[in-house]
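Page 37, top half.
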Amino acid sequence: MSDAGAPFPTTAQPRLRIVIPLIVGYAFFMEGLDATMIAVSIPAMAKSLGESPLRLNLVIASYLLSLAVFIPVSGWIADRYGARRVFCAAVLIFAAGSALCGLAESLPMLIAMRVVQGFGGAMMTPVGRLILLRSFPRAGLVSAMNWMTIPSMVGPMVGPIVGGLLTDYASWRWIFFLNIPIGVLGGALALMFFDNFRAPAPTRFDLVGFVIAGVALFMFELAIENVGHPVLPPSLGAVFFALSVIMLLVYWHHARHSPAPVLDLGLLGIKTFNIGTMVGGLCRVGLDATPFLLPLLFVVGFGLSATEAGLLTFSSTLSAMAVRSVSRRLLRVLGFRRRWPAAPCCRPRPPRALRC
């Protein structure tokens, strides 16, 4: 809700029931488009910068490290400065970081600009979800999420094709320059249609928790990356693993005694949230790895062009879009959880006294 006791904006203006989810999905579209375009362009980027294609995995890892560090603080920033203002700024920062990535002349510069881009992405998608939750009553969230996922699924679907065409017939730099008009348009639409949700009295920022959690997540992500593509000595990578676990335990202790932790671990006590977070995280390991690994296999392993690799990988999201189109109907028929009758062999046996 926009203010205490105020109605949801989608209740007062029914047209926003479609407009707001599509604008939020627009941010996911830009992020998904960018990620999948990069995947098919990595060999060309490596050749242009004088690096090996496998070393370009740092371009992806640096973005993920930036997300890991800055996502925890996105909610507090939105409550402090207003969700609409933060969302617009995040989209523009993402677009500006993309422009700087396209101007990069070396791998270190490209990695640094990807960190800037990751800062925008860390603010953009979580705050977009927050706007969606505060714009709709609970009964309208399923429909809103379906509308939101349309552009967010289109981005990864067309990204490989667009990235392949730009790489083969223009330059890999255009995969980053393309985000500039997309970001400007998204920021303008958000400014026009979003309410500036903000907390009436934002809590004090948990700086200590942010530093502990940020450093711990950074070291953990870097240690995982070092296992597959060593950039540090193996012994130092093992030390990073151990230190990250220790710091996460320190943060757990800090969060238990902090009145407003930057990451509220108490939410994991909610069974449905816990299961959704843990199982969803495991599923995303495979879902998010596929768009990156397949293009590399096709281009580096099979010697195909970037366009051919894009054409082969774009269809992976078609089935997901088909399921999204019927998900609301399935939920109405089956519900979120249905208890099916147990098989005869699995039914509990009656007490001995009741047996015939």
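Page 37, bottom half:
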Amino acid sequence: MTTQGNGSTPVAVRLDDLVVAHGSRTLVGPVSFELPCGAILGLQGPSGSGKSTTLRVLVGLLPPGLKVSGSVEVLGQDVCDRSVDLPALRARAVLVGQTPVVFPATILANAAFGLRHVVRAPREELRARAVAALREAGLWDEVGDRLDAPAEHLSVGQRQRLCLARALALDPELLLLDEPTSSLDPAATRTVEDAVTGLRGRTVLVVSHDRAQLARLCPDVVDLARAVDGPGA
């Protein structure tokens, strides 16, 4: 269940004065924003401004020793409430990291990896969902005829889209993309951006240091530097 924003607009993410600190040092915040369901929002800021940390807060993946204050609601759940089932939340709000990690298995097995651990369904259904995810991630035309090939043989750009497909196979309510093209060349970057812009109707939060990229991908952008330092920073 999602919360409601202004009027009756469903909200997937709501941060209210989020602060992440390590001892006396503030790593993030205070940051406040809302992400409506079905929207794509960008999160920008210089290196060290806490972009990736903010994403990890949303799915309860902060390392020990960091303290979170403020309000953090994701898909109607208070992430700071110790009673929240975080593994279940992570199946609904899926984080795709900036380093494309593939497993020593086939392309199809990689696409279905998370799905097999979350959904109990016949093999044919799992395959169909994995194939649909490869299509949505813009990878099918390049790998559809070699699904049994090792995923390690893919290029870095293809691996990134395979990781995106793995997340999409779960049919997440919220997709969190952390620097999705940071390790890619310009051609591969354009291909991944095309895949992201094709995610119409999904709720997506994109982190990037590249302001031009976020301008291409996201109608709205939150600037963490401004959130921390105030207007004019």
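Margin note: Residues 123-136 form the longest helix (14 residues).
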